[in-house]
Write a structure and sequence with these properties.
The chain has helices spanning 2-15, 27-46, 48-62, 77-84, 100-112, 129-145, 161-173, 185-191, 199-206, 216-227, 232-240, 254-263, 274-292, 302-307, 310-317, 331-344, 354-358, 367-374, 391-402, 407-417, 427-443, 451-462, 472-477, 479-490, 492-499, 503-512, 518-539; strands at 351-353, 388-390, 424-425, 470-471. By secondary structure, the chain is mainly alpha-helical. The termini are far apart. The relative contact order is 0.04.
């Protein structure tokens, strides 16, 4: 019946229209519209409220009552006719010329049945026409005032506020006078959802009067300002940062890392070595900002924190073995970074010169790349004197050198090779660095690959949009090959090792620890080597005093450590 009414309505409309007024109505378009309307009509008939409506209408007809068709207050058949067929005269309400009535009924009952988009917090849950009218007028008034009501609440907690307050009361019921620092740990971990070693520094932050007790009122003030209704990331962020800042600075982590060193059983062996506490803290902070601080401005924002795994790693470290947490906290990784720097720092003043830096890894790094690094191109060096590097600079370099698959490392070396800073590594820039590689290979009696062949191999490896031109995003998409790309141009030892690699041994090594990064594998091998050298040094303490000058503190013989490049 509905389809017949629609067809008659369309035919009547066409009688009043000429070809000067509207475009011809194609049969195919009408057929598609008819199919869609039939689909809407059948869907409306299947709604549970439709059966009740039909039953009510039939009963009203039997009783002789006047039947009123439900309608939408914001959408009339007159408006539909005027919008769709502008040349058609407005049709009287008793004889609708378009399927507007069916559409209105479908729209109204689709909303009434609960099949609707998420509602705004200010919308009334009732769906009667009167309430819809009231909502329409209030929405219009809000729009006229230029105020958009809030509809997104990112910090809303999953647990009800009353339940949380009840848990707070339960914690303080056993200690009416207040909690001490010893009894404050469970409330930090179980109620605040933060690492347990946060208890001591957080206790000092809340107990501003240094009374040694935190009362329920004191805790509730802190709770409402920094914890209640916040996500875990927001809670972590609010507690670590200073109250007046909207970002986290490097020194903000120090009290919490100090508490970790004092409490975690994995650091008990460092109890008598206070100096290494400070060095370990420095390395952890350097690594955190290397990964999380994407702008390298010394500040971690809430957005950067959410995109990282820092909060999850902090929660994991409290219950796991210290060396199992390879991100940020591994003591073995700290040991490798510290010893590698100490090997180069001859006078132990924690500053190395350009000449000392070049000795790293037997002068494997391209000298032209060294010049770019000490010219503050990939990153501004924190050393005060020219052509020097402090420990933080070396940590950034070594993490980038041995973990070239990371985004930070790719950005680091891309800046080194991109001589003109236009965001494209071109053939002439690659040739500038490869010329020295060829010279060094010839000095070592190695056969050098021609530069055109190198370009062809790199094109096949990275697949740039324009051959011979490599952009940063293209290297990030091929991050597993990005390390080889930079090693060919900048690192002689790794370039030679790549040419002489055993693909089967490499595949076996990758299969042993598939979730390890290149930096993880390097740190593991170097840690084993350094420990072995230290043990050999201890075993040879009975060596004659006059032979001590030929042995360095790390077990290298005097001829092993190369002070100058052999070419």
């Amino acid at each position: 019946m509905s389809s017949m009414k629609i067809r008659v309505s369309v035919e009547q409309d066409q009688e009043h229209l000429t070809h000067h007024d509207v475009f011809p109505l194609h049969t195919s378009h009408y057929s598609l519209a008819k199919v869609k309307m039939d689909e809407f009509f059948l869907r409306w008939l299947a709604l549970p409220h439709t059966a009740e409506l039909v039953k009510t209408i039939i009963e009203d007809i039997k009783m002789g009552k006047t039947v009123q068709t439900p309608h939408s207050p914001n959408f009339s058949s007159k408006q539909f006719a005027t919008t769709s067929f502008t040349a058609s005269p407005p049709s009287p309400p008793s004889k609708p010329r378009s399927p507007t009535a069916s559409l209105q009924t479908i729209s109204h009952f689709a909303f009434a049945s609960g099949e609707r988009p998420p509602k705004s917090p200010t919308r009334s849950p009732e769906t009667s026409p009167s309430h819809l009218n009231r909502f329409a007028s209030s929405s219009k008034q809000t729009a006229d005032d230029g105020i958009i009501p809030r509809f997104y609440f990112p910090d809303r907690s999953d647990a009800p506020a009353k339940q949380e307050m009840q848990q707070v009361s339960e914690f303080f019921s056993a200690s009416p006078k207040g909690l001490t620092v010893e009894t404050f740990g469970p409330i930090v971990q179980r109620l605040c959802g933060l690492p347990s070693f946060f208890a001591t520094p957080l206790f000092k932050r809340i107990d501003t009067a240094n009374s040694g007790l935190i009362t329920q009122d004191m805790f509730l003030r802190f709770w409402r300002s920094d914890i209640q209704g916040k996500s875990t990331h927001q809670r972590f962020f609010n507690i670590i940062k200073r109250p007046q800042n909207s970002w986290i600075e490097p020194d903000d982590f120090r009290p919490y890392l100090k508490a970790l060193l004092e409490i975690h059983p994995g650091f008990q062996f460092l109890g008598a070595y206070g100096t290494y506490h400070e060095r370990y803290t420095d390395v952890v902070i350097y690594r955190i900002f290397y990964v999380v601080d994407r702008d390298d401005d010394g500040r971690i924002t809430m957005r950067e924190l959410r995109k990282s795994n820092l909060v999850e790693t902090f929660l994991r470290i409290q219950d796991d073995e210290i060396n199992n947490v390879r991100d940020y906290f591994s003591y073995e990784h700290f040991y490798v970074l510290y010893c590698k720097f100490f090997e180069l720092d001859g006078d132990q003043d924690f500053v190395i010169t350009k000449e000392e830096f070049q000795r790293h890894d037997s002068h494997s790094l391209n000298k032209r790349a060294v010049e770019r690094i000490f010219s503050n191109v990939p990153r501004r060096l924190r050393a005060k004197e020219k052509d020097t590097m402090v420990f933080e600079d070396f940590v950034w370099y070594l993490l980038s050198e041995e973990g070239k698959m990371s985004e930070r490392a790719i950005e680091y070396w891309f800046k080194v090779v991109d001589l003109d800073g236009d965001g494209i590594i071109k053939a002439v820039e690659m040739q500038y660095f490869y010329e020295e590689q060829v010279h060094r290979l010839e000095c070592l009696n190695h056969e050098a690959v021609s530069f055109p062949d190198i370009i062809c191999q790199l094109n096949d490896m990275i697949h740039p949009e324009v051959e011979g031109e490599f952009r940063l995003d293209e290297l990030k998409k091929r991050r597993h090959q990005a390390g080889t790309f930079f090693n060919v141009l900048l690192n002689l030892n790794k370039f030679v090792n790549y040419e002489q690699r055993d693909p089967f041994a490499l595949k076996q090594e990758m299969a042993q620890n598939p979730d390890w990064s290149d930096w993880d594998r390097y740190a593991n091998v170097e840690y084993q080597r350094l420990v072995m050298e230290e043990e050999n040094t201890e075993d040879s303490e009975e060596i004659r005093f006059d032979e001590m000058d030929s042995v360095d503190p790390w077990g290298h013989s005097g001829s092993t450590f190369i002070s100058e490049a052999p070419f």
